[in-house]
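PROTEIN DESIGN WORKSHEET
SECTION A - STRUCTURE
LENGTH: 363
TOKENS:
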């Protein structure tokens, strides 16, 4: 919990004067909303997608703002928002019409999304002002906040700053409306452009950074941003095999030993959410020593090279990502981003892919 609280403090430090949404979609990126709620209950609000998860936050005692990032999916969801005092995004004509046809005394707080060039959700710039005016005309809309999402805040775009082209769009649209601030920044924008965006950021949306993943890895590791891993996935060795030169390991015989080796078998596989496509060489810790996976990941097992871990035995601790706490008190860390990179994916996917059968330690 301390790691996640710490990461929230980093979001605040990079966004002076802004309120912070703690993004807990996908069950808090696989960490479990129940687990992380105590570490995030000093956020200014929670942002998510799922109505059940919004209701859970209310059950846990949260009385502050909750935002549906993709808004409602059908008209009946608006009644849910009224019953639970949920704020919601409006990003298309259907959602706008549903609000226009709603007759209620409840004052809705809505976030009107601008398609600034990412071309997923939101009103095109030429349609945005009209949508804004239609919402303003509704007596049951108690406030409108502009919203946009950056597509390239974690990098550059065509040789320019990754946020430059979308900021131009936002300025052209927001200026005539007399709007100076909204919610624009995701984790990458918070960390890389926080000072620049502060005057425009009534709210920021902290997602992956809360859980210790770096949004611009491998350019910057989590340590660069002073982020701590929120999740540790661990297991143990359940068997050891001594193999000879030319022996193979696992399905498809994709790994062939070039010398005599000790191979450890770990109780974790793709049914647990560990990526099946993790190649030989994916980093892993055994008794806190960094080594590598070998061969294909199976449904319930994967195999590791014990050449550099001579003390390893059946029952030895395995850290698939996160922190290993050595008996001497030293903490040895395997960042989840280091695991995601050779798998051709990102830390977000690994966190969210964990199966329900896996007991996870949230630090």
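SECTION B - SEQUENCE
RESIDUE ASSIGNMENT:
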């Amino acid at each position: 919990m301390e790691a996640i609280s710490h990461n929230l403090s980093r979001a605040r430090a990079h966004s002076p004067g802004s309120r912070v949404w703690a993004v807990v979609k996908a069950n808090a990126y696989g960490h479990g909303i129940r687990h992380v709620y105590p570490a995030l209950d000093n956020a200014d609000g929670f942002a998510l997608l799922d109505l059940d998860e919004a209701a859970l936050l209310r059950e846990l005692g949260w009385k502050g703002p909750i935002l549906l990032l993709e808004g409602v999916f059908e008209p009946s969801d608006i009644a849910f928002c009224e019953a639970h005092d949920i704020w919601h995004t409006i990003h298309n004509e259907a959602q706008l019409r549903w609000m226009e046809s709603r007759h209620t005394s409840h004052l809705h707080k809505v976030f009107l999304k601008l398609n600034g060039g990412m071309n997923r959700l939101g009103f095109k710039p030429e349609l945005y002002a009209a949508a804004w005016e239609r919402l303003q005309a509704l007596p049951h809309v108690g406030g409108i906040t502009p919203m946009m999402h950056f597509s390239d805040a974690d990098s550059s775009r065509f040789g320019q700053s990754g946020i430059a082209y979308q900021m131009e769009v936002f300025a052209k649209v927001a200026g005539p409306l007399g709007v100076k601030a909204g919610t624009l920044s995701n984790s990458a924008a918070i960390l890389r452009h926080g000072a620049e965006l502060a005057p425009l950021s009534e709210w920021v949306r902290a997602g992956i950074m809360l859980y210790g993943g770096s949004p611009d890895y491998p350019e910057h590791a989590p340590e660069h941003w002073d982020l701590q891993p929120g999740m540790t996935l661990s297991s143990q060795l359940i068997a050891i095999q001594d193999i000879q030169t030319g022996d193979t390991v696992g399905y498809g015989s994709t790994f062939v030993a070039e010398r005599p080796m000790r191979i450890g078998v770990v109780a974790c596989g793709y049914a647990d959410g560990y990526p099946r496509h993790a190649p030989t060489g994916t980093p892993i810790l055994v008794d806190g020593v960094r080594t590598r996976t070998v061969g294909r990941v199976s449904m319930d097992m994967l195999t590791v090279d014990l050449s550099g871990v001579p003390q390893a035995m059946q029952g030895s601790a395995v850290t698939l990502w996160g922190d290993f706490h050595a008996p001497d008190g030293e903490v040895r860390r395997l960042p989840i981003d280091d695991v995601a990179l050779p798998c051709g994916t990102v830390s977000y996917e690994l966190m969210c892919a964990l199966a329900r059968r896996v007991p996870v330690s949230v630090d």
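SECTION C - NOTES
The chain has a mean pLDDT of 96.
The radius of gyration is 23 Å.
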